[in-house]
Amino acid sequence: MHEDVFRADDGYGSATQEPLPLPLDFEAHYVMSQEAWHSYALYRLGANDVAERAVHRAFLEVLRNWDALLAEANLPQQTWSILRRVVGDEALCAAREGITAMPSTIGLYPALLKLPQRQLDVVILRYVQDYSSLKTGWYLGITARTVDHHCRKARERLAPVYHRHRGTSPQKKKEEAGQ
User: Fold this and answer.
1) Bridge partners, 6 (sequence order)
2) Is the Cβ–Cβ distance between 5 and 63 less than 8 Å?
3) Does residue 71 surpass a pLDDT of 90?
4) Strand partners, 19
5) Is the dihedral of CA 15, 18, 19, 20 positive or negative?
6) Could you tell me which of 176, 131, 126 has the C-alpha nearest to residue 149?
7) The pTM is what?
8) At residue 23, what are phi and psi to the nearest 5 degrees?
9) What single DSSP character describes residue 14?
């Protein structure tokens, strides 16, 4: 944890410099939480290097907000929510990278990547990671109704790809149903 926080007295940032002193209560929180945080991140992300990166990012965010977090009623709950958000962000990045590597004969995956960022995040969390609208909303900081709205808009944007592959169109279906 110390390697990212150095004195910048001489303008250089080498690992041989003395680390900045961290608040003692932060160090205690780090020592007490690190193992559980890493286990959680490893379970959710599946790879040790990704889990370590997520935990490191989370602790750096906790450190940046340490004074404000100390004023909160439940410090462990507040810091855990930071970890969950960072781990969710890492999972989203991995899912986005996975989509680019997937073969697509109908052009669905390239179409997914053309969605606005919020719609893509919602699609990944709802349909790839199979989260509920409520849980997806929690990760993204939006309501479940807004998640459902983004899902609906994403499906509308993706519909032409689907219908082009099937040789159908929404208009053609309406015409056939009216006959």
Assistant:
1) 19
2) yes
3) yes
4) 6
5) negative
6) 126
7) 0.55
8) -60, 135
9) -
Q: State both tokens at 135.
A: 């849980």
Q: Which residues contact 4 (CB under 8 A, 6 or more apart)?
A: 56, 60
3-state helix, strand, coil in the chain (%, to 5): 75, 0, 25
Q: Amino acid identity, residue 86?
A: V
The one-letter amino acid code at 173 reads K
- Which residue type, as a one-letter code, is found at position 2? H
DSSP notation for 110-123? HHHHTS-HHHHHHH
In single-letter form, the type of residue at position 154 comes to: A
Give the per-residue pLDDT at 97.
Answer: 74
Buried b (16+ CB within 10 A) or exposed e, 104-133: eeeeebebbeebeebbbbbbbbbeebebeb
Q: How far is CA 89 from CA 7, 133, 157, 158, 164, in A?
A: 30, 17, 24, 24, 33
